[in-house]
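Figure 3 (text version): structure tokens given as input.
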């Protein structure tokens, strides 16, 4: 190769060197160190011999820390690309505070009290972002007619329909003053609506009693369930003396006698009229929704 390196660049596995009055490209045989330590973590190769120029290695962080990037390349200098391991955020609000340009998606968090590390979905767009998603319905692919233990520990798919788990929702809301938002999409005409409530928390240990302040639909939406413990078909804690609301509504909830919001009800054909379906009565009566989500954000 003759001429300057900038005008005639080398291949990806080559470097440009000046040789007399011209420049030449030479193959690189560089290798990078095995298991290179970085603060609060290390760079780990995936297999023997995978530490040559342009090979990719994994950044592994210590417990409670997350990588600035998941993978790094071996550079011609014999060093892995720069990466750092930083303390995990305690919720999506903190993730956004640390990185204001953060996008919606999956994040690892470390709960502030228990130290439990979770992968959660963060909404970084709605009303300024920083929301942690704890309930999501979109297609009926996950059965929400579950027992108390499953509702306490969580179920579903991180990339699809899910319930985060009462014990995790409770801890997230204990970290500070928290607002909750219910988002709905009509099954009849795709109209979008939402309800917000202030001062959301779950109290009284494993009863997970709902405590909320002012709501968009005061006493006619989510607020109707205020001060009620969480009921499932196998743990009847509602105020009805003649029936189990979780059974007749086909969904676990903070049932009163019974409810005016049934976001954990049966996912039937969107737009159907169903007592036990997936609906929000103030938003669209008992017509079943196409989508719903419940999200919380610390103030």
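Below: residues designed for each position.
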């Amino acid at each position: 190769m003759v001429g300057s390196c900038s005008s005639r660049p080398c291949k990806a596995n080559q470097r440009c060197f000046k040789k007399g009055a011209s420049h030449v490209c030479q193959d690189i045989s560089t290798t990078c160190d095995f298991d290179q330590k970085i603060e609060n973590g290390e760079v780990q190769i995936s297999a023997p011999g995978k530490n040559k120029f342009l090979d990719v290695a994994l950044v592994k962080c210590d417990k409670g820390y997350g990588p600035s990037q998941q993978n790094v390349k071996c550079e011609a200098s014999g060093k892995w690309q720069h990466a750092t391991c930083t303390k995990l955020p305690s919720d999506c609000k903190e993730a956004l505070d640390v990185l204001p340009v953060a996008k919606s998606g999956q994040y690892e968090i470390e709960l502030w009290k228990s130290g439990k590390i979770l992968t959660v979905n963060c909404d970084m767009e709605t009303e300024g972002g920083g929301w942690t998603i704890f309930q999501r319905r979109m297609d009926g692919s996950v059965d929400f007619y579950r027992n108390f233990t499953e509702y306490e520990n969580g179920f579903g798919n991180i990339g699809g329909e899910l319930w985060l788990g009462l014990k995790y929702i409770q801890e997230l809301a204990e970290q500070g003053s928290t607002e909750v938002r219910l988002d709905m999409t009509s099954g009849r005409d795709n109209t979008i609506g939402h309800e917000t409530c202030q001062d959301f928390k779950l109290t009284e240990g494993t009863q997970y009693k709902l405590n909320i302040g002012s709501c968009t639909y005061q006493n006619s939406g989510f607020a109707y369930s205020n001060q009620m413990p969480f009921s499932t078909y196998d743990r009847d804690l509602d105020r009805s003396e003649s029936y189990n609301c979780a059974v007749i509504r086909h969904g676990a909830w903070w049932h009163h006698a019974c409810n005016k919001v049934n976001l954990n009800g049966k996912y039937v054909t969107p737009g159907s009229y169903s007592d036990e379906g997936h609906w929000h009565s103030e938003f669209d009566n008992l017509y079943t929704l196409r989508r719903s989500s419940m999200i919380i954000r610390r103030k």
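Helices lie at 92-98, 148-153, 166-174, 245-248, 281-284.
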